Amino acid sequence: MGLEQDELLELALHGAREAGDLLLERFAGPAQGVSSKSTHTDLVSDADRSSEALLMELITSKRPQDGIYAEEGGKGASESGLRWVVDPLDGTINYLFRIPIWSVSIAVEDRDGGVVGVVHDPNRNETFTASRGGGAWVNGAPIKVRERTDPSKALIGTGFSYESKVRAVQAQVLTRVLPHVRDVRRPGSAALDLAYVACGRLDGFYEHTMEVYDKAAGVLLIQEAGGVVSDLPAPFGLTPGVIAAATALHEQLSKLVLDKE
């Protein structure tokens, strides 16, 4: 894909930074247009919608034949075999509560999986990028997963569902994992969690049920940083989540999460 892959990454980078600037400008002001989605705890705001509208316009103007799948409803069929997967604001609850841990996540996929991925953190001015076969980077510096082998020394990230019945299952899993690892973190932006695994700030990550826009860019980041990502079956027939870590730790974390000897 060569030259086209470079062009896709450049466009994804440009879009993520433009959306990040828009979101950062609004971050200090009062939240507007807040409503609930799947549950009363699953919120969306005008900031999410505006960020998505910006990205949709940018992508369709430059790549009219590509498909788009975006969190807040933006969709378009693909005529090129490529699909953009967009989370215009990953970490909406943090954003609305003025916690500066949120991001913009953009990936491009073909039938074989991720082609390019970008996770942009406007608050820290950090941009994580990956391209298939091209490695993973943060602000232009190469990154690698941390080769942790001992779970008791591993710092693990996770996330929780907006569905109360799924949270109950996740709470049970947490009681199984927590005694066997260094500690567990739940920052609130899954895309950043996965990026942090890619750069070694977290040793591993797991979460039951994740939408494709939550994980598409982050999965490619981890794979290109030398890590392993596998599906984590979700309860109640929901969309699968992921288990991610370096090779040796991935096997052990999977046993803890899945309750296998």
Structural description of this entry:
By secondary structure, this protein is an alpha+beta fold. It is built from seven helices and 15 strands. It has helices at residues 2-27, 46-62, 92-96, 164-177, 190-199, 212-224, 247-258; strands at residues 35-36, 43-44, 67-70, 75-76, 83-90, 103-110, 113-121, 126-131, 135-138, 141-142, 155-158, 183-185, 204-207, 228-232, 241-245. Strand 8 (126-131) and strand 9 form a beta hairpin. The relative contact order is 0.14.
Write the layout of secondary structure elements.
Blueprint: H1 2-27, E1 35-36, E2 43-44, H2 46-62, E3 67-70, E4 75-76, E5 83-90, H3 92-96, E6 103-110, E7 113-121, E8 126-131, E9 135-138, E10 141-142, E11 155-158, H4 164-177, E12 183-185, H5 190-199, E13 204-207, H6 212-224, E14 228-232, E15 241-245, H7 247-258
Parallel strand pairs: 3-5, 11-12, 11-13
Antiparallel strand pairs: 1-2, 3-4, 5-6, 6-7, 7-8, 8-9, 9-10, 13-15, 14-15
The proportion of strand residues reads: 25-35%
SS content category: alpha+beta
Sheet bearing the most strands, described? 8 strands, mixed
- The CATH homologous superfamily of the largest domain is termed Fructose-1,6-Bisphosphatase, subunit A, domain 1
Low-confidence stretches: none
The helix content, as a percent range, equals 25-40%
CATH class descriptor of the largest domain: Alpha Beta
